[in-house]
Amino acid sequence: SYQLGNWTPAGDISWPTQSIYSRRNKLQWLVLKTGVTEYCKTVLVVTEYVLICQTWRPSVTQCVSPFRTGYYNSLDGPFGLNLRDASWNGVVGLLVRGDVHISNSAFIYNNPLLEVLGYLDPESNEHIYIRKPDSTQLVRRSFLTPFSSGVWVSLTGLPAHVMQQLCCCMREPAT
Length: 175
Hints:
Elements lengths: L5 E2 L5 E2 L5 H4 L6 E7 L7 E3 L2 E3 L8 H5 L2 E7 L16 H8 L4 E2 L7 H6 L32 H23 L4
Parallel strand pairs: 3-6, 3-7
Antiparallel strand pairs: 1-2, 4-5
């Protein structure tokens, strides 16, 4: 492998003359150690809720660039908890100890986790919106309050419009 650059005493970096693609364009069948969680291997149906789990498959990159993936399961828990002795278990423990290079497991961002892992790439951003009600009195129309009046006009107007169009089509005499 090639260095990205060299720091000079003046604090500047001298960049390499080779392009990024010519520095390391072959992975020479490097084994990329991947920490995985197998908390769910099949589709699990519980009452009306469905939990679907997927397994990470070799990507197109793996087919084009020669490297292998080694999958490592954590023996002491699926995701990772901060233990009392400042160590971690689970897949986070595998990453912190250097047993694996990467992980495709879902982690919840929190400060202790961000302090021990050098890089986390967000897969998705979840937002929660909690609307404070105007009043706490329970009235008959309280089920209407989560949505604005425009939403309710649209929801009731659309079926009425569709019904009107269907009635007009049915009334026309066939010629």
